[in-house]
Amino acid sequence: PMMLLVVLLASILLALLRGGKLGNFAQLKIRWSWLILIGFLIQLIVFQPFWQETILTRSLTQVAYLVSLILLLLALLANLRVPGVALLALGFSLNFIAIALNGGYMPASPEAVALAGRSPRAPGQVINNSIGAGPDTRVPFLTDIFAIPSPILFANVFSIGDVLIAIGGFYLIQRAMVPAGSPS
Fold first, then answer.
1. What is the model's pTM?
2. 15-40 pLDDT per residue, tens
3. Is residue 17 one of the residues assigned to a domain?
C-alpha cells in the first residue's frame, strides 16, 4: 500500500540525513531472496486487469495470492537475524492470518474505507486483494480497520499488521543505511 511506501521513503530520507548511505544495503545478507522476487512477481501478475478477465484466472487468484504470501513469509523467516525483519515477519504473519481465514482476501471495514474517502465495499465485494468486511468476517481485529482520513495525502485503510510491517521496515532501513556507531 501507498502508506508503507511513504514510510519507507521517509525512513530512507531520515537515514540519508543521519549520514547513511544507500550503498550500505549491499552489506545486508539476505537469504532466499529469490522467494521474495517470485512472491512479488506472482502478485504483480494476479492483480493486473488482464489476469482478472477470465473465470479460470479469477478463481486462481486467491490461491496464487496465498502462495505468494507463503513464499514471502518463508523468505522473512529465513532472515529473522536481519534487524527489523522480526517485526516485518510478525506484521506479515498477522496479515496472512487475516487473508487466509477470509478466503484469500484482506477484509476492509466499510467505516475505515469511508473515512479514507473511498466508496465502501459491500460485504463480500472484491476489489483486487481486498474484500468488504461484514458480519461473517473472521478475525476482524486483524483486518483493515484503521484509516488515514481522506483530507490527508495518501489516505488509505490499513491493519495492525501493516503498522508492524511499517515499523519493521523503517527500523531495517535505519540499521542498514546508518552503521552502528555513526554519529546521528
1. 0.91
2. 999 999 999 999 999 999 999 999 99
3. yes
Evaluate whether residue 122 is within a structural domain. yes
Tell whether 184 is covered by a domain: no
First to last CA, the chain: 29
Q: Residue 98: what pLDDT?
A: 98
At how many degrees (to 10) do helices 55-77 and 85-101 cross? 150
Give the separation between CA 176 and CA 171, rounded to whole angstroms.
8
* Selection from 183, 175, 171 nearest residue 24 by Cα: 175
For the chain, the domain total comes to 1
Domain assignment of residue 183, yes or no: no
Residue 117 confidence (pLDDT): 93
User: Which stretches of the chain drop beneath a pLDDT of 50?
Assistant: none
- Residues 78, 80, 83: CA angle, nearest 5 degrees: 140
The SS3 of residue 7 is helix
What count of other Cβ atoms lies within 10 Å of the Cβ of residue 115?
Answer: 17
Cα(75)–Cα(33) distance, rounded to whole angstroms?
A: 7
Strands of the 126-127 sheet, one edge to the other: 106-108, 130-132, 126-127
